[in-house]
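User: Is it possible to get a 3D structure for a protein together with its bound compound? The compound here is iron/sulfur cluster. I've pasted both below.
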Amino acid sequence: MSVSVERMVKVFERPRSLTGAHSTYCPGCHHGILTRIIGQTIDDLGIVERTVGIAPVGCAVFAYRWYRCDALQVAHGRASAVATGVKRARPDLVVFAYQGDGDFASIGTAESIHAANRGENITVIFVNNQVYGMTGGEMAPTTLVGQKTTTTPDGRDPALFGYPIRFSEMIAQLEAPVYVTRQALFDTKRIQETTKAIRKAFTNQVERKGYSLVEVLATCPTNWHMKPVEANRHVAEVVTKVFPLGDLVNRG
Amino acid sequence: MAKRVLMRGNEVIAEAAIRAGCQCYFAYPITPQAELLEHMARNMPRLGRTFVQAESEVAAISMVHGASAAGVRTMTSSSSPGISLKMEGISYLAGSSLPAVIVNVVRGGPGLGNIAPAQCDYFQATKGGGHGDYHMIVLAPSTVPEAGELTMLAFELADRYRTPVMILADGMLGQMMEPVLLPDPVDPAALPAKPWAATGAKGREPNIILSFDLDPEGLRRMNLELQARYRTIREKEVRHEETETEDAEIVIAAHGTVARIAKSVVRMARAEGIRLGLFRPITVWPFPYEPLRALSSRVETVLTVEMSAGQMWEDVRLAVAERAKTPFYGELGGVVPTPKGILREVKRHVG
Ligand SMILES: Cc1ncc(C[n+]2csc(CCOP(=O)(O)OP(=O)(O)O)c2C)c(N)n1
Ligand code: SF4
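Assistant: Yes, that's possible. Here is the predicted structure of the complex:
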């Protein structure tokens, strides 16, 4: 039996704000899901013509390729400061910084905290995958105690390297941020929650409410040496124990 | 109608930046350029423009990166240790072809050094400083009024060539007060459009502003494009000044504050019958090699005087080659050479 094409209804398609450029992420990596969510959000809010994305140094260095909006690629860790510059220069733009945990919570510590503390009216997406993906899986500030990485071959020893940093909790101590939340992508429920969070983080900016941060617990199957499904389970069962999900600040 | 006012170098640079249409200024405090920051703090918000005291010089230059990418005129200022921190951002600006003005009110170094005037950041300013094959245009004012004029020019050149431009001043120039005729403000709305800027992809393809290309062929093209632009700058933007060089047997080569002091040495020497002239680069990058080369074949000696261990001296020797003697006199650590001290050096090399 043949199905008439006219009778087919498109129920799922690529967000218009995404270019469809060939992905540079590994199979099963959460960066891809997150990209789609951001694209969908930009579509839903109808802001693609006034959005500027800031790509970091890290696996998301090519993030400027995914979106049909103006974009910059900037120095390692400085995305929140660069976003500050763009936004202050043109407050009518919608500016988002997309940063890994090495970028945001290690080398960019000062820039990340102070952009939040000034209450810059920007949206920051902070991808916490507990490793340095791009450089080959070294320890990140978020690496779990005991986790093996290429620079902690025997597992992270807190006596030598400290503990995984709960950066969003630090930001949540500040007066200015209007929205700080930690989300995940390991199942459809979390994907829906993350979608809502990202929509809120962008909406806050559009409504000129101020600084919003969405931390997303992500997988790095490649450097965790896990299958994607196993990596999802690891986030659900292990990572969320150290990095609990949910809103930390919601002054919307 | 413009009128003369008595102002400090740092304030003149700040005020000139405002008049050049600087919309966003970002900086971190450091002596001896605090008055620049303070002038901006007082005046930018009043004009509806952006002033942000950044958490560090690294952040300040990154904010400049953002504001420049968004298409507005933007500036940061600091002094030596802070400029070292800005080198990362300057390299990114150069790589991304973004215009910006960076002011270095140089102080004694290395390390924390001191807060006295110095010229010890010449290499850092003119030979790269940050990573990669890039240059900044570097303007070296020698008086307070000239600091204002060159600041206006810096914004123009930055936009024209889409490049960072540095004002290389020093603590003396920053602190000194002189009467100046402030330049007329430019109308920011009348400045040429920046179709490459990140202003929102409305009715056009997205503008993507990058300093990288993982493909060596692509990065090679990007570098060649930069080098072509640097060639144009070398052809068109070299600026220098000569004082009493027509009949000179010896000339001093000096920039900035030292050139200003050397001007009085020229008068003193001439009064004693010594035919001394002064060659003053105004752009230290691009360095005025050609004019100095031409001059050097007419004189016996080109004496370089600097508040450094001999940094510009290298460019002088490149220009002069074997055509004249090229002795050097430098003071270090924030010590400013006196007219008498320079004259003594001149005398050692004549007759
Ligand atoms: C100043 C500087 N230091 C180091 C690097 C090398 N480097 C590139 S990506 C990266 C880590 C990125 O990790 P993360 O931010 O967690 O992002 P991921 O790759 O995991 O997505 C490092 C250290 C760099 N590009 N610049
Ligand atoms: S290395 Fe890890 S974070 Fe990077 S793309 Fe691959 S799976 Fe994703």
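Residues A 57-60, 76, 100-103, 127, 129, 131-135, 140 surround thiamine diphosphate (ligand 1) (CB under 6 Å). The two ends of chain A are 53 Å apart (CA to CA).
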